Amino acid sequence: MPQWLNNFLPIAILLVAVAIVLARLPRVELGYSEAFRKRRVLNWLPLGLTYAFLYMGRYNLTVAKNALGTLMTKQDFAEIFAIGTFTYGLSFLLNGPLTDRWGGRRTILIAALGSAACNLAMGLSLQHGSGANLLPTFSVLYALNMYFQSFGAVSIVKVNAHWFHVRERGVFGGIFGILISLGIYFAFDWGKLIVDAFPTQVEYVFYIPAAILLLFALIDWRLVFDLPSHTGHDDVEVGDASSGDTGPALTLRQVAVKMFSNPVIVTIALVEFCSGYLRQTIMQWYPIFAKQTGIAASFVPANWGMLLCVAGILGGVFAGTISDRIFQSRRGPVAVLLYAIMLVGAGAMVFLLESPALGWLVVVMSLAIIGVHGMLSGTASMDFGGKKNAGVAVGIIDGFVYLGTGLQAIVLGLVLPADGTPEAALASGWHWWPIVMIPAALVGLLLGVRLWHARAQRSAGGAH
User: Taking a C-beta distance cutoff of 8 angstroms, is the pair 191, 208 a contact?
Assistant: First the structure.
């Protein structure tokens, strides 16, 4: 059996099992016709897969770093990644309002086409450039890539805010987590397969995602629409924070004040700042840790993308299902539960750096943090921002995710041992890696407690 099929088989089996379980759950009856439900799948599935392949065109940088060796040191990678993620995090100031104005259909096309162009440029710079100018060239191109990437989450939430009622968005949060997980799998495992197939042509790890994104831009142009009415179906009342708001559209300043004065939105954004910090501290640095400490051939690092995908699917479905079915569509209790796992896991990592159990521990922690991220960025942003302001709301929240991501890149770049030093090859030399996770996990847990009883409130008429 080919290696890629061997890796994808567990994911395929798990997706089938998840589909069967979700299909057998009691359906939330909201009066939708079967034709509407089928058309909704045709809308969110290509949109979601585009988002997954955007991940492939984002985290291929990590795969390239390991393949390039000394041409991109750990400190170079941290600097490039930090610049890119800070660019992503700050882009919401522009891209959130643009998405609310233009609609998610148009902005997902901008994301796919723009990221494809940037990946093509990065591949060309590797193919025709030299190691001497790799850092400045990639700092600019990766930052530009992340600007276009920042339209992705905003677009998917903006579109789906018009298609999913608040009572069924927990399950959609699980789907969002699945899409993130598939993207991680595409980035790490497919990326590794590309590098293995073209060991002297690392540029293909950028060219192939560019080609896939171009294909999905065409598919989205044909199939994805902002509103049900654009496909011949009636628009639906979704019951979120925009429901009942029939007043005129707000200015950008008014929307920003409204979002930043909402304590729930601000708290979610701060929780997701911690999520971004923790998610990438695990996801980006474990493969580098494994390679430098000589355990890259062991099961977990050798199948990192597949295991992250499985963990993310389970985390997303678990978080979404218990949110809707146990906590009456409240998102806070799920965040508290999953952050508790993160806090305990980070503490345990301190003592397990030299243990084979470390790999499985970080997989469980990935399950928890992807579950939180899918629940808050993919679901709570719709609930509390409402369909009218979903772009700005998810922009704020996802922006904070990547500000946290940028911070961890700076912190890890400073505290981890430099490439080529004896400490870098020893697991014990990485002792600061789990230590710097503990404060973020504790703060995220405490902030999650503040969200315990929070739920979306319908707007009172046209008042603002």
Answer: no
The reported pLDDT for the residue numbered 95 is 86
> Are 224 and 43 in contact, with CB atoms under 8 Å apart?
yes
For the whole model, what pTM was predicted? 0.75
Top mean pLDDT of 49-58, 148-157, 172-181, 444-453 is at 49-58
Q: CA–CA separation, 366 vs 181, rounded Å? A: 10
**Tokens 């390239």 — which residue?**
64
In CATH, which of 3.40.50.720, 2.60.40.10, 1.10.3720.10, 1.20.1250.20 is domain 38-226+244-450?
Answer: 1.20.1250.20
Residue type, 312: G
Q: Where are the domains of the chain?
A: 38-226+244-450
Q: Which two tokens stand for residue 386?
A: 């409402």
pLDDT at 76 over 60: yes
Burial bucket for residue 388 (CB in 10 Å: 0-12, 13-18, 19+): buried
Q: Confidence band (pLDDT; 50, 70, 90) for 464?
A: very low
